[in-house]
Amino acid sequence: MITPMDGSTILLCTDGSDLALGALRQALPLLAPAERTVVLTVTAEEDPTLVAGTGFAAGVISAEQQVELLQRAQRAAEDLLDHTVAELGLTGAETVILGGDAGHAICDLAESLPASIIVLGTRGHGGLRRAVMGSTSDHVVRHAPCPVLVHGGHDERH
Fold it and tell me: Which H or E run contains 86?
């Protein structure tokens, strides 16, 4: 069992996938209870070109439609975090929704908390696919200000 330090904070990261939930479910028994547990999800940043256009093309939605899209994304993220907390049986966990690049957002939050450990899953993309798509878990492992526990899931489609 990994024993966090006094005043410890565990940062649990999810994208709402079964793989992420499974990673958190498997990792939690390995960790001693922490003083603070934070569950995080990261949403895509708003795209101003949807309304304003690109300079070569006009926007494709109105400002009101963009506000509605952002509100729906916020509600979906809140539901995702509520579901994750309930599925993991966490009591007293804090939830956080951030926007932007997931790897950067996770590392920035971990530093600001400060987190004692970050827990997240990985899809296990290999080779070319990971090079093209990038890897949130790779970024977090390389840039986190604390230890990172990564659980590699198995995609049954392959």
Answer: helix 63-88
